[in-house]
Specification:
This protein has 176 residues and is α+β, with helices and mostly antiparallel strands. The chain contains six helices and seven strands, in the order βαααββαβαβαββ. The chain is globular and about 45 Å long. The relative contact order is 0.17.
């Protein structure tokens, strides 16, 4: 049985990083990347821990193994991950600073557990665990990741902005 909760141990954060590594484009084939999706950002343990201390990352655990995660990223970390800086700029531009939001820094489900509703449940749990005063969840998806775009749309995400950075098309999406 899969249990959903916030990460609270070093071992859980290590498992997040391990699952992340298994889904980075550099570690999967182009075919798998297109068919199954991929994650873009490679986090360091220091940044992952700092983010977790502000708002615990949401994890799906099956028999003591993390099989999915959704990283909570408070906007105060906007400058900490270079590839995400343009996203935060686009969010600020679109919202004009009028909304308190939590960024979902990355979501990933293990290949063995895809198609079982874990993606949806990770977001549902994230919404339930958001600190008081946050109005929405915002994230971005690489335009070359149709599986992720479709999964987010199916879960109620709406487009806030589309922009180009570093030769890629990014879709900034939000869930109220």
């Amino acid at each position: 049985m899969v249990v959903y909760k916030q990460a609270d141990t070093l071992q859980e954060l290590e498992q997040i990083l391990d699952l992340q590594q298994r889904n980075l484009p550099k570690n999967i084939s182009q075919e798998e990347s297109t068919k199954e999706g991929f994650v873009t950002v490679e986090h360091t343990m220091d940044v992952l821990q700092a983010m977790n201390e502000v708002c615990g990352h949401i994890i799906a655990v099956d028999e003591d193994q993390i099989v999915g995660y959704a990283l909570c990223m408070h906007p105060k970390f906007a400058e900490d991950i270079e590839v995400l800086r343009p996203m935060f700029h686009e969010i600020d531009k679109a919202l004009e600073g009028k909304v308190n939001y939590m960024a979902m820094g990355q979501i990933c489900v293990a290949k063995t557990h895809r198609g079982q509703g874990i993606f949806r449940k990770l977001y549902q749990t994230m919404k339930e665990k958001l600190p008081k005063g946050f109005d929405m969840i915002i994230t971005e998806v690489d335009g070359k990741n149709p599986r992720s775009l479709a999964a987010h749309a199916a879960n109620g995400f709406k487009t806030l902005a589309i922009y180009h950075s570093d030769g890629k098309e990014w879709h900034v999406i939000m869930l109220k």
